[in-house]
Amino acid sequence: MNKKEFVEVLSKKTKLSKRNCELFLNEFKNCVLEVCGKGQSVAIRDFGKFTLTERKPRKFLNPQTKRFYIRPAKKVVAFKGYKNFAEFVR
Amino acid sequence: MNKKEFVEVLSKKTKLSKRNCELFLNEFKNCVLEVCGKGQSVAIRDFGKFTLTERKPRKFLNPQTKRFYIRPAKKVVAFKGYKNFAEFVR
After folding, report:
1. Are residues B83 and B51 in the same domain?
2. In this structure, are A19 and A46 located in the same domain?
3. Same-domain check for residues B46 and B33
4. CA-CA 20 to 30 A from B2: which of A11, A32, A43, B9?
């Protein structure tokens, strides 16, 4: 399901316009990014927790050039779903 | 950062009331759970993708009773952040 379809689902649930739902979704996205970017985590009860984690640098082989390259360390946002979450969807 | 604090951040960004922000956040949560529960994934561009994955059953030892127990398979929602996401927060 892509963003457009998800906005429709949200719109039906919240009874708000699609426009508002999309705006909110965008801001939700930006806020999570911003808070995580500051090194804080976002914990939402009964849902999960967004945190920033670092992926270590890694060597990889390019089979065409037969050379090793190094993928630098990067920071990604990880999400951990809570237990209640798991039970809800079971 | 807990939900209450996050709602405040959202409220400032969207210029909507805290009440509305919290309502929206709750519905966002429910919608992701619902869509994932149906076996679909939720992909939000420039953010990430929520999918349902199964954790296999696993044996574990209780050191007090010295017995092995089996943790049954469970379904949890996994999130994968996109590349742009990573670049934003770097």
Report:
1. yes
2. no
3. no
4. A11
Identity of the amino acid at B38: K
CB A3 within 8 A of CB B44: yes
Interchain proximity B89–A81, CB inside 8 Å: no
Contacts of B36 in chain A (CB under 8 A): 89
Distance from CA of A70 to the nearest CA of B (A): 17
Q: Which residue from A13, A28, A86 is facing B76, i.e. has the nearest CB? A: A86
Residue B73, domain extent: 41-90
pLDDT single digits (tens) A33-62: 888 888 888 998 878 888 888 778 888 898
- Cβ–Cβ of A77/B85 closer than 8 Å? yes
pLDDT in tens, B13-67: 888 888 888 888 888 888 888 888 888 889 988 788 888 887 788 888 989 998 9
Report ipTM (2 d.p.): 0.71
